[in-house]
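Support case: iron/sulfur cluster complex. Customer-provided input:
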Amino acid sequence: MEKANRSIHCTVTSCTNHCKSEDYCSLDSIQVGSHECNPTMDQCTDCQSFAKKN
Ligand code: SF4
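Agent response - structure generated as follows:
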């Protein structure tokens, strides 16, 4: 079972870094950024540590 980092809540189960058994990330830290020049909403931000689960 993957380690759950209880400081990083995440529901993106299609990510290979998701802890699977619970809604947490398994990484020690993540990178968050934006695809917008001037982000104004939560939808403008991205987890840049996402990697698609195979
Ligand atoms: S890397 Fe990002 S998207 Fe993937 S499980 Fe961790 S927090 Fe979620």
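Strands lie at 5-9, 24-25, 32-34, 45-47.

Case will auto-close in a few days if no follow-up is received.
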